[in-house]
């Protein structure tokens, strides 16, 4: 069964700034947010007493101290960039909203030489994804590989030591191929389960339930089908904050996100069969997925993107759930360019607001979307994309501090042919100061993780080296780049230290394995070995102390900053005791008092950089941020003779809020319901409307009947000295039903847009939703729609108006419209076609009220002189229209040509003349009609004559042509030709060409030119009077040349000499 959560108004709206999580245990802050192995981290919250284990990612840290509101724990060397998790065997698993990151005190900057050569471990066929987790509880990150072409997964059990990577490979039969993997403790036993999405477009999740012990891996298999899906990414997160992490799944086949509800109990893993389905509007499918609190309300929100969709953008659904009740806003779309593949959430610019980073497959970059959400619980807002360059085809990504400088770096896997992994190194200078570093690797790679794998407290890089199917290069290897950067040691406590003899000083550096510490006093070595601490308690041990760290098999030697230590003798004092006025209410004043032991000075230190001096001091406006461990330095003279501490909790009250059924606005007559959450019998409630007490309204739920601003005064019945608590104010409004009215024409015509005008009266506070039914099956949600009817008839038009989110607040109105049929119209043409230059008359049959031709004319008859399609729209007295068109074909005039057997004949000879381009022929000779009607004639001429032919072609179009036949009445052609005696081709436009008068009438004659040696230098037939005194394209010298004119049938007609003068 799937529960479809699509619209926000279906669920309760949480209106308080800080939501009531209804959990006994809440993590509120983590300080610091990055740290080195062995560093103590303060985890603040509520209800922390009883915490059994603390995990930094999947690796357990050591708990030093636990109180109701503070856990002090040390950072393990296997910590990954992840939420901190607290396991309480009673209340379950609790996640921090903030990420913690392993750092190690390195110097800023990354180079390819900072890594050892790539080490590969074979996986099964089709390796796709990798994840890391401490599966057997030995404090070392094991590696899990998902294989898309094998029914087995790959697990590498970590047996590494510092500087030496070593794994035991364990293939595990899943019974099906796998695609992506993730890990997390699902049943609250402190052991992370492994969850795979099914490969081959499968619809199942495969869970390896963890029963491992240190050094021994042991799992059982469990399958969860998600019908009609193709599972992709899986994220483990407690969505309803009931202490049981749920499964959030993307679907690479549809626009769905699925939530599998965790129902485990007493360490037995189980899930609800009612799989929650969220629709991602405007998406085709989902792929990239992360689940993190984006707006600081303590509830993890869902972030997803479309898979390999250009311009697909990403989507966010805000979490509004409470224990046992899953509630989400509809997905808010964030449009952006590029083809997104995967995304991850993390605080890159250290402003305590998590940002989003996505790989852009085709753009060779990652896009960073900076979190711009303004307030707790507000709708998440993000900047436009800021792209950071990568190598070709980036795919997977992860975060970590590669160089140990305390800044979040982005690590990217690339599937492009460059065969690289990218580190986008963050120099921490503000904004997004990342620089790309390319690490050459052996294969193309797809997914990537950052974690310390060899126990040296520095994050390494593990990635899936995948098969290159395009180039037929197999890989399927889990590959590791070991981080061999140097660690700069840091000494705590900070300088200066003034201690009295008898108050031992303990200097500590990072807690590291496989390294050597060399402690020096004033430059002289006083201790060397594996100990990361140095204890001092004698005046002779005063001085300047440094520690040098020897690592990476002696290749790294780094020295700390000096710490100044002064140990002096002082008068002995009794041990001081600290008392407080606890319990202290939120907003009250904490008073800390030391017994008077005769000390010179009493100096206090505490959370939020608190400091004060005196036997008794006050901490005003005491709250969860200022609660925690306070230290007292007791001075005897100028040195500290004793340091005492006390942990003080604030009296915590639930984060009360008002839930309401609906959106805060109701229809008149509808029941409004306001409820204070959480329900706590230790508190009483008094409801207010404005500033007035509502008599008798003292229960958890109140049903207002009047509009106004409502809030609750809350009184602590146990800690009666605590001030009253006031909820946020909630506005309630009641809306009048819509008064629906609209106008429409009484009659209309088919195929003609009809306008409907809304004239309804609606409440100003409401957003109206319009639902039109035009009676013919057509509908609209526009306020003032238009509609086209295609069939004549009488129709009932219905307008229903409701208010957005209030289905009960609706009313409607019905009116009729008569739709007339369309007009029948025809066009008659005076001729079916025209010849070029002719015209035709087009006439509309029948009589109408108006005419509108596409030529712009408005008469019933038009005359056109060009072929084409002509249309006319007519209208009758009712405004109904009809339209028709007619095509007029236009034929070109015929291309008539005449050819003669000879253009010049001798008097009395015959000539044959042929005509083409006509279907009938009429011949004339010098305007005298001839009796010929064929296309070819033979005629004898006694004088030069103009022969003309005219007629029609096959289309009936008229054409004509004429030709002049030269008749030589004297019988010698040469006598009729007069060549120039000289010419001057010097481009002055005078005698440029050698010309022969009358040669144009004798196309049967040609010209040859010879030089004085008898060489032919030019010839042309016919001659067009265009010789410029050239031979082969080059000018010839001035001089005398000879011409010969030869005509067909007569031989040489004329010859002579030419003088060329330039």
From TrEMBL:
Domain PKD: 737-802
Keyword Signal belongs to the record: yes
Keyword hit for Signal: yes
Keyword annotations of the record: Signal
Signal peptide range: 1-22
Residue ranges that the Swiss-Prot or TrEMBL entry lists as coiled coil: none
PANTHER family from the UniProt entry: MAM DOMAIN-CONTAINING PROTEIN, SENSOR KINASE-RELATED
Protein name as catalogued: Gliding motility-associated C-terminal domain-containing protein
Organism per entry: Marivirga sericea
């Amino acid at each position: 069964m799937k529960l479809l959560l699509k619209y926000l108004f279906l669920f309760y709206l949480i209106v308080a700034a800080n939501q009531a999580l209804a959990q006994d245990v809440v993590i509120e802050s983590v300080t610091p947010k990055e740290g080195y192995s062995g560093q103590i981290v303060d985890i603040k919250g509520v209800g922390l007493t009883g915490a059994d284990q603390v995990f930094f990612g999947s690796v357990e840290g050591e708990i030093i101290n636990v109180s109701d509101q503070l856990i002090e724990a040390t950072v393990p060397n296997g910590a990954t960039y992840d939420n901190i998790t607290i396991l309480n065997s009673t209340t379950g698993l609790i996640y921090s909203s903030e990420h913690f990151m392993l750092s190690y005190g390195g110097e800023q900057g990354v180079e390819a030489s900072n890594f050892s050569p790539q080490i590969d471990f074979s996986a099964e066929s089709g390796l796709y994804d990798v994840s890391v987790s401490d599966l057997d509880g030995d404090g070392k990150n094991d590696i899990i590989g998902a294989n898309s072409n094998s029914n087995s997964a790959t697990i590498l059990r970590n047996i590494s030591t510092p500087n030496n990577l070593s794994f035991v490979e364990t293939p595990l039969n899943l019974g099906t191929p796998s695609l992506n993997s993730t890990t997390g403790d699902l049943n609250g036993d402190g052991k992370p389960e492994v969850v795979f999405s099914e490969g081959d477009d499968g619809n199942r999740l495969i869970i390896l339930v963890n029963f491992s012990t240190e050094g021994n891996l042991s799992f059982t298999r469990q399958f969860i089908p998600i019908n009609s899906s193709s599972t992709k990414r899986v994220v483990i997160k407690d969505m309803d904050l009931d202490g049981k992490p749920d499964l959030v799944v993307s679907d690479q086949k549809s626009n769905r996100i699925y939530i599998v509800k965790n129902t485990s109990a007493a360490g037995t893993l189980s899930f609800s069969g009612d799989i929650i389905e969220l629709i991602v509007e405007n998406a085709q499918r989902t792929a990239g997925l992360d689940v993190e609190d984006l707006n600081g309300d303590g509830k993890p929100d869902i972030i997803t993107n479309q898979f390999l969709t250009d311009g697909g953008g990403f989507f966010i659904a805000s979490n509004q759930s409470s224990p046992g009740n899953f509630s989400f806003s509809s997905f808010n779309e964030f449009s952006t360019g590029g083809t997104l593949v995967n995304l991850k959430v993390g605080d890159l610019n250290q402003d305590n607001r998590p940002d989003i980073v996505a790989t852009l497959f085709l753009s060779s970059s990652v896009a960073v979307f900076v979190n711009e959400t303004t307030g707790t619980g507000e709708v998440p807002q993000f900047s436009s994309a800021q792209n950071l360059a990568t190598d070709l085809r980036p795919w997977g990504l992860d975060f970590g501090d590669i160089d140990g400088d305390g800044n979040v770096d982005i690590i990217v896997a690339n599937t492009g042919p460059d065969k690289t992994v990218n580190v986008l190194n963050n120099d921490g200078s503000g904004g997004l100061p990342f620089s790309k570093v390319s690490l050459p690797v052996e294969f193309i790679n797809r997914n990537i993780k950052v974690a310390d794998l060899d126990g040296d407290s520095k994050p390494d890089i593990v990635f899936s080296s995948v098969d290159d199917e395009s180039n037929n290069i197999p890989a399927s290897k889990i590959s590791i780049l070991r981080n061999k950067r140097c660690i700069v040691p840091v000494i705590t406590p900070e300088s200066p230290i003034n201690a009295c003899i008898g108050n031992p000083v303990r200097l500590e550096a990072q807690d590291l394995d496989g390294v050597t510490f060399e402690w020096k006093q004033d430059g002289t070595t006083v201790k060397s070995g594996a100990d990361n601490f140095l204890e001092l308690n004698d005046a002779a041990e005063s001085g300047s102390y440094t520690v040098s760290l020897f690592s990476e098999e002696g290749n790294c030697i780094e020295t700390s900053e000096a710490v100044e230590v002064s140990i002096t003798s002082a008068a002995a004092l009794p041990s001081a005791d600290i008392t407080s006025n606890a319990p202290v209410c939120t907003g009250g004043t904490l008073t800390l008092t030391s017994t008077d032991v005769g000390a010179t000075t009493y100096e206090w230190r505490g959370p939020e950089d608190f400091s004060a001096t005196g036997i008794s001091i006050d901490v005003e406006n005491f709250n969860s941020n200022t609660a925690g461990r306070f230290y007292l330095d007791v001075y005897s003279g100028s040195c500290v003779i004793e340091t005492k501490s006390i942990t003080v909790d604030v009296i915590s009250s639930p984060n009360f809020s008002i839930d309401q059924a609906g959106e805060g606005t109701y229809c008149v007559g509808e029941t409004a319901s306001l409820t204070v959450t959480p329900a706590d019998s230790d508190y009483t409630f008094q409801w207010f409307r404005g500033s007035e007490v509502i008599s008798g309204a003292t229960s958890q739920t109140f049903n207002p009947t009047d509009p106004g601003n409502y809030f609750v005064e809350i009184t602590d019945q146990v800690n009666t000295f605590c001030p009253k608590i006031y909820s946020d104010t909630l506005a309630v409004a009641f809306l009048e039903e819509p008064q629906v009215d609209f106008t429409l024409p009484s009659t209309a015509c088919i195929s003609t847009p009809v306008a409907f005008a809304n004239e309804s009266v609606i409440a100003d506070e409401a957003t109206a939703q319009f639902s039109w039914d035009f009676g013919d099956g057509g509908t609209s949600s526009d306020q003032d729609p238009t509609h086209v009817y295609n069939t004549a008839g009488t129709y009932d038009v219905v307008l229903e108006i409701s208010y957005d989110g209030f289905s009960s607040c609706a009313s409607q109105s019905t009116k009729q419209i008569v739709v007339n049929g369309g007009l029948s119209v025809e066009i008659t043409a005076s001729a079916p076609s025209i010849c070029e230059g002719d015209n035709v008359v087009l006439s509309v049959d029948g009589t109408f009220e108006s005419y509108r031709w596409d030529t712009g004319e408005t008469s019933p008859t038009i005359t056109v002189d060009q072929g084409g399609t002509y249309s006319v729209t007519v209208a009758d007295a009712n405004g109904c229209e009809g339209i028709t068109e007619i095509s007029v074909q236009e034929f070109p005039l015929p291309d008539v040509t005449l050819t003669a057997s000879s253009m010049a004949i001798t008097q009395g000879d015959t000539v044959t003349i042929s005509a083409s381009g006509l279907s009938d022929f009429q011949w004339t000779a010098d305007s005298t009609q001839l009796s010929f009607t064929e296309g070819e004639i033979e005629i004898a001429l006694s004088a030069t004559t103009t022969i003309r032919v005219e007629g029609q072609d096959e289309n009936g179009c008229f054409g004509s042509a004429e030709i002049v036949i030269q008749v030589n009445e004297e019988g010698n052609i040469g006598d009729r030709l007069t060549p120039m005696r000289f010419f001057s081709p010097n481009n002055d436009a005078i005698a440029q060409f050698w010309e022969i008068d009358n040669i144009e009438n004798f196309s049967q004659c040609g010209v040859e030119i010879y030089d004085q040696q008898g060489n032919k230098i030019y010839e042309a037939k016919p001659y067009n009077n265009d010789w410029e005194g050239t031979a082969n394209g080059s000018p010839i010298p001035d001089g005398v040349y000879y011409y010969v004119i030869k005509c067909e049938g007569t031989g040489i007609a004329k010859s002579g000499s030419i003088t060329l003068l330039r």
